[in-house]
Amino acid sequence: MQPTPTRLDSAADAMSGANETLLQVRDVKTHFFTDEGVVKAVDGVNLSLKRGQTLCVVGESGCGKSVTARSILRIVPAPGRIVSGEINFQQRNGAMIDLAQTNPKGRAIRHIRGREISMIFQEPMSSLSPVHTIGSQIMEAILLHLPVTRQEARKRAVSMLELVGIPRAGEQLDAYSFELSGGMRQRAMIAIALACEPQLLIADEPTTALDVTTQANILDLIRDLQQASGMSVLFITHDLGVVAEIADEVVVMYLGRDVESGPVDAIFHDPKHPYTRALLQSIPRYGSRDRDRLYSLKGTVPHPFDRPSGCPFHPRCDEFIQERCNTVDPDRYAAGSAQSVRCLLYSPDADLYAKEDSKP
Amino acid sequence: MIWYIGRRILYLIPTLIVVSIIAFLVIQLPPGDFLASLISKAEETIDQAQVDALRERYGLDEPIYVQYWKWVSGIVARGDFGDSFEWNRPVSDLIWERLGLTMVISLFTLVFIWVVAIPIGIYSAVKQYTIGDYLVTVVGFIGLAIPNFLLALVLMYIAFRYFGQSVGGLFSPEYIDADWTLERALDMLSHIWLPVVILGTSGTAALIRVMRANLLDELSKLYVDAARARGLSELRLLFKYPVRVALNPLVSAVAWVFPALVSGSAITSIVLNLQTTGPLLYRSLQAQDMYLAGSLILLVSILTIIGTLVSDILLAWIDPRIQLQ
């Protein structure tokens, strides 16, 4: 009897539920309880992702991008843990689950990992086991989540390697990670992540450790696979060029918070938050005149134990309002066409203060 | 793989030649010879003619390289390790059973060390900075710090006082000179735990630390997170990835644990009155019993070299990163 191939079902699922919210992260706080004190790596982040779309999370190093991603899958390393917030995710069967409430070692989250949400990491070198073959790691994911035999799993693993463009897939199945190049390793990681056709792929700076040509290839690959399968992608990066290329929606993070979020066009053409504006101004542009100095954001990211009062960005902000920004913690305000911004300039009573300031 | 093993065995030959030369030279280093130490201990004076006769009989007048050649060619051609001066018997008669017992004790100890140290090391790493981890660490350091002979005395006392067991030696009195039977083997097994625990304690303590450190390194690696993100359960994840990788260095540790066991057990064996090679070597060195001492050193060295070879082959077999070329 011929083994029946597992149905590629996620594309159909995605079509039926187009424009539906797949993932909604609400005010999640993930803190690290170290001996020296509490590090608020993620301190109230909000994001939402629709089916089939790509959400890019951008920000400087240490702004909590990766911890946000790990919080969703509940793989935050000790001594970190989620202290509050909701992570609502719609499962394949339509049921909603709050991932923040699951036991990180429990069955419920394990059923989600690899099957509904997969993750690829920054360094393809170290995210594959040094002593196991690529094939054994792909087959592990398949056998864990799908009702197939070993032979079927092996077949599927070969077709996954072919899908992500690894040449001589049958042979490479038995290769070890150290026998592959960086780009091929990241392809293998993508093959593992997509082996069970997840609804959501979390990509944590998947191209940062690769050279520029390979970066472009991997980005194209992710985009092609996304179009074919209809999965959603949560893409974490600090590279605004990548964001412009692949994002539908963007969340800009600063010190563990979403400071601005909205559709990619709005963010790039009409940035509202002073931090977003500063980020965009600091991109070097082709054809700019030599004597124009590249804008650079003043100051540095504050030490995690020394969070500024009020708006955490105020010490570096060009539009700092004395006695206001350093005392009031901004909420999320609607601004522009579709953005939400955490900045007092956009608060409903902002005009009031602006007038007060302009008084002689 | 076959080529690799073959080449490694070929390399053994020059190593063994060098080891045999060094073993022979080492026992020639102290001034005097067996006769000198015999005479110094003798009650009545031995006249010179008698000494010369003995000297000629043992071949002690000949140059060192002639003596060496006689010894080595005897071993290679006939398996004849020469005669022990002190015991007046062929060396091979004296050492085989002792060597066998030494091997048995060492292998048991090695297994004991692994069986105890690996699970504790894993526990200690997974539960880092918990009370359990601190407890293991403290006990481990105590185990490292206590000299084996002291531990031997204490455990002997306990075994005798509270369990009424005949202590010392590997056999109950009635089996000491008996032939090998099932009963004798069982009797040995009931005695062997004491030397095994004593000899294994410091090795176990050391290996717990090594296992803990190795595993802690691996636990924070990205491939562990990646595997967790695939939905693996914590226990399967632990044993399939980080423990598997952390075990590799332990395999090569066999190479250093094994010779340390064989050579480091002399004092413990004397205290426990074990019929192993340690006490025999100790006495033969004191008496300058040349062929016996040389043969023992040579055999222990050969065991060490073989142990190293075995652990290298094991490592090449379990770790794909090791290139055989």
Task: Explain what this protein looks like in three dimensions.
The complex is a heterodimer of chains A (360) and B (325). By secondary structure, chain A is an alpha/beta fold. Chain A contains twelve helices and twelve strands. Chain A has an eight-stranded mixed sheet with strand order 6-7-8-3-9-10-12-11, sandwiched between helices. In chain A, strands 2-1-4-5 form a four-stranded antiparallel sheet. In chain A, helix 5 packs across helix 7. In chain A, 44% of the residues are buried. Mean pLDDT of chain A is 85; it is low at 1-16. With 325 residues, chain B is mainly alpha-helical. Chain B folds into two domains: 2-90, no CATH class; 92-318, MetI-like (MetI-like fold), CATH 1.10.3720.10. Chain B is 77% helix and 1% strand. Chain B has 14 helices and two strands; from the N terminus they run ααααββαααααααααα. Chain B has helices at residues 2-28, 34-41, 48-58, 64-78, 91-126, 131-145, 148-163, 182-219, 222-229, 234-240, 242-264, 266-272, 277-286, 290-318; strands at 83-84, 89-90. Chain B is globular and about 85 Å long. Chain B starts with a helix and ends in a 7-residue tail after the last helix. The model of chain B has no long low-confidence stretch (mean pLDDT 84). Chains A and B meet through helix 3 and helix 4 of A and helix 9 and helix 11 of B.
Q: Average pLDDT across residues of chain B?
A: 84
Question: Quaternary state, please?
Answer: heterodimer
**Could you describe the largest sheet of chain A, including whether it forms a barrel?**
8 strands, mixed
Average pLDDT confidence of chain A is 85
> How many strands of chain B?
2
Write the layout of secondary structure elements.
The complex is a heterodimer of chains A (360) and B (325).
Chain A: H1 10-16, E1 21-34, E2 37-50, E3 54-58, H2 65-73, E4 80-90, E5 96-98, H3 107-112, E6 117-120, H4 134-145, H5 150-163, H6 169-172, H7 182-194, E7 200-204, H8 212-229, E8 232-237, H9 240-246, E9 249-254, E10 257-263, H10 264-269, H11 274-281, E11 333-335, E12 339-341, H12 350-358
Parallel strand pairs in A: 3-8, 3-9, 6-7, 7-8
Antiparallel strand pairs in A: 1-2, 1-4, 4-5, 9-10, 10-12, 11-12
Helix pairs in contact in A: 4-5, 4-7, 5-7, 7-8
Chain B: H1 2-28, H2 34-41, H3 48-58, H4 64-78, E1 83-84, E2 89-90, H5 91-126, H6 131-145, H7 148-163, H8 182-219, H9 222-229, H10 234-240, H11 242-264, H12 266-272, H13 277-286, H14 290-318
Antiparallel strand pairs in B: 1-2
Helix pairs in contact in B: 1-14, 5-6, 5-8, 5-11, 6-8, 7-8, 7-12, 8-11, 11-14, 12-13, 13-14
